[in-house]
């Protein structure tokens, strides 16, 4: 597969309250905790929960919301962590996404190797499911720790992304 994410199960520190979801993630996961691993065309890229993932959340949730919309034909995102910095141009091609990345920095300095590997083409469902594993890990840990968030908007939106889709209603006439 050209794109996947291993969410892992990082150790969680107690966190009673936080400004928002990203702040909670930064507080809950220590630097030495297990990392998420994004695999891009067979190149593993480590993502620290407490640093990278915390910085990505403000862009990740809106990106996933947009991509879930059938009318979304393209999106752009700038991942702005100093150890995971990249610009992704995403174009929908039927039921797949083509992701063209410009890599600026990664933990391990894999930018040139990632660039050599080129674009990723991934089914929309696989892309959203991969990131959902990371969000599920975070939402579950925030709930388990009973973290009080001053601004819970992003947390609620992440939870909505994880909820099962509503059932499709049939408008067939009774027989």
Description:
With 175 residues, the protein is of the alpha+beta class. It is 37% helix and 31% strand. It has 5 helices and 9 strands; from the N terminus they run ββαββαβββαβαβα. It has helices at 21-28, 49-67, 111-117, 124-144, 153-162, and strands at residues 3-6, 17-20, 36-40, 43-47, 74-81, 84-93, 96-106, 120-123, 148-151. The strands form 3 sheets. A 4-stranded antiparallel β-sheet has the order 5-6-7-8. β5 (74-81) and β6 form a beta hairpin. α1 packs antiparallel against α2 (49-67). The model has no long low-confidence stretch (mean pLDDT 93).
Task: Output the keywords.
175 residues, alpha+beta, 3-stranded antiparallel β-sheet, 31% strand
Computed structural class: alpha+beta
Oligomer: single chain
Counting DSSP E segments of at least 2 residues, the number of strands comes to: 9
Contiguous uncertain segments of 5+ residues: none
Radius of gyration: 17 Å
Helix content: 25-40%
Q: Please state roughly what percent of the residues sit in beta strands, choosing from under 5%, 5-15%, 15-25%, 25-35%, 35-45% or over 45%.
A: 25-35%
The SSE order reads EEHEEHEEEHEHEH
Distance from N terminus to C terminus (CA atoms, Å) equals 46 Å
Largest sheet: 4 strands, antiparallel
Give the overall pLDDT as a whole number.
93
Strand order of the largest sheet: 5-6-7-8
How many DSSP helices? 5
General form: globular
């Amino acid at each position: 597969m050209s794109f996947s994410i291993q969410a892992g199960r990082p150790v969680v520190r107690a966190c009673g309250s936080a400004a928002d979801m990203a702040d909670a993630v930064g507080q809950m996961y220590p630097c030495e905790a297990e990392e998420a691993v994004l695999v891009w065309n067979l190149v593993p890229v480590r993502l620290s929960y407490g640093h990278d993932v915390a910085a990505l959340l403000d862009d990740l949730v809106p990106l996933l919301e947009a991509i879930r919309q059938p009318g979304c034909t393209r999106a752009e995102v700038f991942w702005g962590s100093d150890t995971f910095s990249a610009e992704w141009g995403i174009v929908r091609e039927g039921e797949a996404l083509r992701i063209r990345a410009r890599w600026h920095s990664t933990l391990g300095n894999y930018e040139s190797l990632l660039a050599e590997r080129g674009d990723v083409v991934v089914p929309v469902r696989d892309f959203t499911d991969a990131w959902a594993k990371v969000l599920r890990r975070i939402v579950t840990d925030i709930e388990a720790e009973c973290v009080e968030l001053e601004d819970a908007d992003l947390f609620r939106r992440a939870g909505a992304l994880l909820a099962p889709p509503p059932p499709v209603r049939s408008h067939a006439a009774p027989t």
